[in-house]
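Work Package 3 committed the consortium to producing structural models of liganded targets before the mid-term review. Because experimental data for this complex are still outstanding, the team generated a predictive model from sequence and the ligand definition alone, so that downstream docking and mutagenesis planning could proceed in parallel. The input record is reproduced below exactly as it was submitted to the modelling pipeline, together with the SMILES string for coenzyme A.
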Amino acid sequence: MSESRCSPFTWSDHPVVETDRLRLRRVERTDADAIERLAGDFDVARMTALIPHPYEPGMADEWMDRLEQDHDAGRCVVFAVTLRSGGEFVGVAGLTFAWEHERAEIGYWFGKPYWGRGYATEAARAVVALGFERTGIERVHAGAFGHNPASQRVLRKAGLREEGTRRRHLVRFGQPADVVDFGLLRSEWNVKSSPTEPPGG
Ligand SMILES: CC(C)(COP(=O)(O)OP(=O)(O)OC[C@H]1O[C@@H](n2cnc3c(N)ncnc32)[C@H](O)[C@@H]1OP(=O)(O)O)[C@@H](O)C(=O)NCCC(=O)NCCS
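The resulting structure, written out as tokens with the ligand in place, is given here.
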């Protein structure tokens, strides 16, 4: 496998990415309380495909155990999104790789108190840039629920194009849901929103 087709990221050599307002860094055990509190909000969980609800004490630690293994197996790069000013944890964003297909799926969630400030868009743009700049992937994609216009808007603002709708594709917490697919090819990607990586980060 060529270098461009495997992950350059590991748990111990995790990238740090800075944008205008955000610092994206490795998820740490000290984030567990914030994760359990913010991901524990049903309004966050219900818009994702995977966050469990209720989010019980200890689940964040279990998630981090899996995350560490997934990083070291080259399956993903996932960030704690924090505020550059003050370091407050506000959400999670990252990429899950399918190296054999030269693509990655972008995923994110943000704590409800931080919605509507442009943080998801800023983080998503940074994560897309990291994927194209630091790996050989040719495509970034995502699926958002049909009833999640905020996430669809974030994906569009990060440059992804709508590609179609999988009708009644998932049942989540008893609710049937359409999934709207989005994708962005390297050849379409606009580098102008590229973030900076601090020295040594
Ligand atoms: C979706 C989510 C990440 C957005 O985070 P955010 O930081 O508020 O996003 P931003 O502020 O960067 O952008 C949100 C955009 O959606 C728009 N929006 C919000 N609610 C909307 C609605 N009901 N209908 C249409 N647009 C809406 C906002 O106006 C904004 O667009 P604008 O900048 O053009 O005005 C956040 O709400 C969240 O974490 N939700 C729960 C988990 C989730 O949905 N994860 C993604 C799964 S695919």
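Reviewers should note the following from the model. The beta strands are 17-18, 22-25, 76-83, 89-98, 103-110, 139-145, 161-172, 175-185. These observations will guide the Year 2 experiments.
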